Records
---
Amino acid sequence: MAEPLMEQPADWTEPGAHPVAPGVHRVPLALPIPSLHAVNVYVIEDPDGLVVVDSGWAMPDSRTALKGALRLLGHRLEDVAQFLVTHAHWDHYSQALALRESFGTRVRIGRGEQPSLEAFDVANGLHPRQVELLRRCGAPGVADRVAAFGVNAEERTMPHTMPDAWLDDGERVTLARRGLDVFATPGHTRGHIVLRDAGAGLLFAGDHVLPHITPSIGLETEPEPKPLRSYLESLRIVRDMPDTLLLPAHGPVTPSVHIRVDELIRHHEARLDAAAGQVRSGRSTAFEVARSMPWTRRQKKLDDLDVFSQMLAVLEIDAHLDVLVDQGLLEATETGGVRRYALKG
């Protein structure tokens, strides 16, 4: 049974150490990404040392905020025994690596992140595979603009090395006062994991289940071929578990994982229907379909989004079209390096 939801601040980004269950505190850390605002890391107090789920972005302000939150709990940064990281995006992983350099803290992450961690080379740019995929989607202009992104000094020095050990699907992380079960939930990234504390009724969900937004799909150095299919399957894995509190990486803690998973599944079902409708109307590439659909809660056109958001949108539609091919509704052909879709039959 889930713990009752402890009172949270009205603004989920308010700094501090906010209790979500006995011995578990949520610490929001600001991000240099205005659309995300902050990332929640979760501090688990344990007699053998603090365990922190996710870590924040490796930058001085984030380190200072985490240090201050731990001080409120009577702890120091060096009291963190290990970081358990849900996936390898910088806002979750990089500060764990930076603190390991300072204090020798143990860092673990899902094994499925290994291909992207091994392949990452800042000399190739931040999104080399996405540039290739955008060209296949019939979006050469977006691809050229993404390829032209510069890599700044902070990005060149961002920690992005290997963990001390991997977290495997089905593994149980045994602490003195609780056990955390590891579930592989690929989709947002191929190695994303969630951690479930069945005894306390908590799901440390990372970016897999977010209360207010839908996560990007497959934004990583080595994306898998079918990220949306994996994501939907991972949602159903979580939905089949007994319901718990949702402890997300971005947004407030909410009482029910199930309610939000159902909303996410319905959202993607609606997007699948809309994408199929656009192909039925004569659009044949992911870029053409994406340009014909509304984006964000403000129902913006693709051309009105910034280049990074255009990239995410086009690749998301390509993932939806791939699912429609798997469902037998569409067929895909590739000519001249561009993938085109049509109604099957």
Note: The chain has a mean pLDDT of 95.
---
Amino acid sequence: MDFMNRVNPELRELLTIFPPLNLPAGLEAARQAPVIPVPESNYVRNSTRYIAGGDGQEMLVKLYEPARQDGSNLPAVLWIHGGGYVIGHPDGDDGICQTFVEEANCVVVSVDYRLAPEHRYPAAIEDCYSALVWMTNAAEELNIDLSRVAIAGMSAGGGLTAALALMARDRGGPAIAFQMPLYPMVDDRNETPSSYEITDERAIWNRGNNLAAWHMYLGEHGNGEVSPYAAPARAKNLANLPPTYTCVGQLDPFRDETIQYVARLAQAGVPVEFHIYPGGYHAFEFLNPTSEIGQRATNQYVQALSRALNPQSVNAR
């Protein structure tokens, strides 16, 4: 059966109108694509800050907070946008960040990390680590409860989430209570069955784009032994990582690397919850937010984050 016939029927229409991405030729066009504006929430206050990035230079972060606060400390999420390590901006994730604030009553910091190929590994992960350190150091100013800090992201942002959990563990950095690397881009080797299976140019993200993006991200670092902070699937030790939630569509090239990552986390004793969605392609819920399957997937990970960050509320039920 071909790719389109396997797609969930309510997700097919978008594939007929969404312009296929073709990396590296289409990189600049993808970067210039307009961000669909999201109405501002009455319950969320948005602002921007400039902090020191991984190279010491100024870096943008977007801050989302409950509009009304009583002064009590809140949980916090460092959010990392997707885009194959080569495209994307925090502005594109305003909607999901606002939803996290509304549903989990938390502070969200969204990081504008440097993109490849202009800035190859380790620029992005060092920027994310700097943002995590800044967020936790600013806990008093931001009213953050340091015992309830989470990291999360989708696609390449999910890969950076997984890498950041490893880096914080190994560096003795800020404590992370929960990680949510959604359909994460974690394996540069592209050797899984799903990596070979998803080749259709209409698949939003396919084998060709994945190969090109990893090449742009790693550059000379792709020769020889690749660091687990670049490709977390290469980590030899996944013990002592935070409790984890992740999900993936069955028609996502990251399906099998996500399954393998989840299995290894479980084998290492890490509490993990995982969902796979039949007929779902890469980022299907983000691109089809009004579909039933899209709403279900989003609600499940939003609620997972809320439960992890508000354990007292869960226990009180």
Note: The longest helix spans residues 292-309.
---
Amino acid sequence: MGYPDQRFDVNLSILFTELPLLERPAAAAAAGFTAVELWWPWIETPTPPQAELDALKKALDDAGTQLVGLNFYAGQLPGPDRGALSVPGEESDRFRANIEVAADFAASVGCTALNALYGNRVEGADPQVQDALALENLVLAARAADRIGAILLVETLNKPESPLYPLVSAPAAIEVVDKVNAATGLGNAKFLLDLYHLSMNGEDLSQVIKAYAAKTGHVQIADNPGRGAPGTGTLPLERLLDELKDAGYAGWVGLEYKPGDRPSAEAFDWLPASVRAAG
């Protein structure tokens, strides 16, 4: 049990960001990792030129890294946005334009998990209208994910850092997951369980794991306070990951933490080099 018993991947949108995007897969590989995940890398456009998609695929292939998680277009992230799919008007349109692009790219690199960030509440927009739009778009995304043999992830964020994001508890995200599955009949919508965000919301992490491990499709970690590497805060991450495994979760654990003031390559001291490659 413990960290060596997990399958870790590196989030290249928060680690190795001192490097250009196309150099990050090789940097992760040099640090000993064989699996990576990404937020949507082209924050300005949901439909980047095919040449840019091809270049990222080549960088992943050349490094020998497997992409195991990809966000759909989510607006300015990092930045003020927290997704686009529930935002009426242009942002919802951009999300829809991205669905097949993201799914096709994921299929091209063998990625089987697509994360759809819900989006912030918008001043002047009826929350019920936003939720109806969200369900509509999530159903489209779930069908696209199913077409390529992938799951659709719905994520809880934390209220202190994302005050306008409505899914700031595990039950809130689970409710959306259940609604999407009921609407599609596909059963491929899953919970993205991020231990950092849930801890920032003050949730009982062991209880969340016990209640929702069976509906969890992906896990992400960072320590709290500070969103740094395991061991820089007070979360019992090793124990919590063991609890997840005991509850039946056998999927990926994404390292989505800030490296601090040091280069990203030095932010993995807590994990023995011998167990970084995913078996």
Note: The radius of gyration is 17 Å.
